[in-house]
TrEMBL record:
The chain crosses the membrane at residues 36-55, 67-87, 93-110. It comes from the Bacteria. It holds the Pfam family DUF6069. This is Uncharacterized protein.
Length: 122
């Protein structure tokens, strides 16, 4: 989970501080996406993914497969928000790329930690 947050905040810094992209979205009001919001969102998503994986490991034998499919669907679905509410092309692409960084880090990181059927007490 720590790598997810570090990767997201680092990518935010590259986009906003180095490339100078204004990461803004309109969700009722105009929201400026800063490092704190990226940190909080990435942490929340990592914990949500971890929690779902833990539940699935206790309830199904195919936890890794089910979790991976659900996580990939959630990642792809999450792209709708930045692509529709980002202000400007740069913000849309930048925010979508942040979603992908978090999604890929969570999916690859947590998928690697799942227990196989023989490793769990079923």
């Amino acid at each position: 989970m720590g790598i997810t947050v570090v990767a997201a905040v680092a990518w935010w810094a590259v986009l906003s501080q180095v490339a100078g992209i204004e990461l803004q979205a309109r969700q009722g009001t105009v929201m400026r996406i800063n490092g704190v919001s990226v940190f909080v969102a990435a942490t929340a998503m990592a914990f949500a993914g971890w929690g779902l994986l833990a539940i699935l490991e206790r309830r199904t034998l195919n936890a890794r497969k089910v979790w991976t499919v659900v996580a990939m669907i959630a990642c792809v679905t999450s792209l709708g928000s930045p692509l529709s509410s980002g202000i400007g092309v740069g913000a849309k692409l930048g925010l979508a790329s942040l979603h992908l960084v978090v999604g890929v880090a969570v999916i690859l990181g947590l998928r690697r930690t799942t227990l196989g059927v023989t490793e769990r007490c079923v």
